[in-house]
Amino acid sequence: MADERQFTPEDRALFDAEVERLRQQELPRARDEEIKAAAQRAVERDLEQEREAYREELDSAVVQTTSETVAEERAEAR
After folding, report:
1. In the predicted model, what is the mean pLDDT of the chain?
2. Does residue 1 sit within a domain?
3. Which residues form a coiled coil (predicted)?
4. For residue 40, is it within any domain?
5. How far is residue 78's CA from residue 73's CA, in Å, rounded to a whole number?
């Protein structure tokens, strides 16, 4: 890479202007990408909460069914 001291003030001004132009061009896209990524994380978090609720509900049903089955088997054994 060339030593920056070789650039004239005009070169530096052109460089700075190009950096700013590219920055302004990229910022909206970066913002949109971050918004989409945040939305995706929110959806994933919500889905995980829903899954956890389903797991708890199903685990409860399994425990209840298992308890009923054991009670029925004991009643049949008598």
Report:
1. 90
2. no
3. 37-64
4. yes
5. 9
pTM score: 0.56
Share of the chain above pLDDT 90, in %: 71
Cβ neighbours of residue 12 closer than 8 Å, sequence gap 6 or more: 4
Q: Give how many domains the chain has, as a whole number.
A: 1
Q: How far is CA 25 from the centre of its chain?
A: 25
Q: Give residue 53's domain range.
A: 8-77
Q: At 29, is the pLDDT very low, low, confident or very high (cuts 50, 70, 90)? A: very high
Q: Do the beta carbons of residue 21 and residue 29 sit within 8 Å?
A: no
Tell me the average pLDDT across 66-76: 78
**Contact (CB, 8 A) for 10 and 2:** no
Give the C-alpha separation, 42 to 50, whole Å: 12
Decide if 2 is inside a domain: no
